[in-house]
Amino acid sequence: MKRVLSGIQPSGQLTLGNYIGALKNFVEMQHSHECYYMVVDLHAITVPQEPAALREQTEAVSALYIASGLDPAKATIFLQSHVHQHAELGWMLTTLTYMGELERMTQFKDKSAGKESVGAGLFTYPSLMAADILLYNADLVPVGDDQKQHLELTRDLAHRFNQRFGDTFTIPEPYIPKVGARIMSLDDASKKMSKSNPNQGSFIAMLDDPAVIRKKISRAVTDSGREVKYDPQNKPEVSNLISIYANCSGKSVAEIEALYDGQGYGPFKKDLAEQVVAVLEPIQQRYHEIRKSGELYDILRQGAERAAEQAEKTVKTVKEKMGFLAR
Ligand code: TYM
Predict the structure, then answer these.
(1) Which ranges of 68-209 does DSSP label H, i.e. alpha helix?
(2) Using one digit for the tens of pLDDT, what is the confidence trace for 204-226?
(3) Atom 19 of ligand 1, nearest CA residue
C-alpha cells in the first residue's frame, strides 16, 4: 500500500480552496493508502500567532479533518508539535538546504514582501516541510498547486541526502487535483483564494453560514458576456466558478457547460451556491458535534503515538547515517 502524508496550517479559517485542493483528496485517499494527516502547528508559528487563537484554530482544523470524513481508524491524524521528530529532522535537513534554494521559494517571497522584519523560520519553512514528508517515507503528497515548489525542494533534499549518506528516503510525488488545484478569489481570479485575504467576500470559509455562502457566490465577480464556458485564459472568473461547481457536484466541466448552455450566469450561480452548501452544511453539523463531544483529544493523542513510532525509526536511521553517536 502506498503511503500518503499531508498537512494544513492552523493559521486561520479553512477555505473552500483548502477543502477542494487538499482535504477532499485526503478523505478519498484514506481508503486505498496508508495515510498520515497532520495539522502543521509548527509551520503556523512562522508568522506571529496569538496563543489563544492558535489553540482555537488548531482544534478547529483538527475537528474539520474528522468532520470532512477522515476516519481515525483508517488514517493517522495528529498535530505536528506532538511528534518532536518533525523539529529534529527539520533541523538536520535545514543544514542540507542551500540559501539560494530557499530564496527562490515564491511562498517566502509573497509572505515576506513589504514586511519590515521577517522571522528566520519563515525562510527555513520548506526544510521543515521536507522533514514532515520524509519522516514517513511518503510516496504521495496531496496538495494544491501552490505547494508544488516546496515538493520539488523536498525531492531534491531526499536525493541529496541519499547521495551523500546512502539510500534512505523515498522520493515523494505530489498529488495535485486536475480541476481545482488552484481555486481563485471570488473578487479577483488572478489571486488564489486565501484565508489571509482581508476581504471576507473573496473566500468561502468552510464554516461560513449557508446564507453567507449564498451571498458571497451571488456577489462573485463574473467576466463580461453570459456564456458558462470553461476558458481559464479568456474567462478566468467563470472558469474558477466552474471548477468549484465540478468539485462540489462531481459533474464534469463538459456536463456543466451543457447544463447552462444559453442560460447566462444567473441560474448557474444560484445552483453553484446550492452545490457548495450541500457539501459544506453536513460537514458543519458534524464539526459542531465533534467539538462538543471532546473526542478530539483522544484521537490526536492516539494519532501522535502511531506517528511517533514511525518517525522515530526514521530519525534513528538518519542520525546513524549522519554520524551522530548512539545514546
Ligand atoms: P496551507 O495550510 O497553506 O494549505 C493547505 C492545503 O490547501 C491547499 N490550498 C489550496 N488548494 C487549491 N486552491 C486554493 N486556493 C488553495 N489554498 C490552499 C494547499 O495547496 C495545501 O495543500 N506548506 C503547506 C502545509 C504543509 C504541508 C506539509 C503540506 C506543511 N507540511 C507536508 C504537505 C505535506 C501549506 O502552507 O499549506
Answers:
(1) 85-94, 99-103, 106-112, 120-134, 148-165
(2) 999 999 999 999 999 999 988 89
(3) 144
| CA-based nearest residue to 145, from 3, 12, 25 | 25
Q: How far is the CA of 142 from the centre of ligand 1 (A)?
A: 9
Eight-class DSSP state of 178: S
Distance CA 37, CA 16 (A): 18
User: Does ligand 1 lie within 6 Å of residue 86's CB atom?
Assistant: no
Q: Which domains does the chain have, with CATH numbers?
A: 3-176+294-322 (3.40.50.620), 200-287 (1.10.240.10)
**What pTM, to 2 d.p., does this model score?**
0.96
Furthest CA-CA distance within the chain: 72
Q: Give the tens place of pLDDT for each residue, 272-325.
A: 999 999 999 999 999 999 999 999 999 999 999 999 999 999 999 999 999 999
Residue 105 beta carbon below 6 angstroms from any ligand 1 atom: no
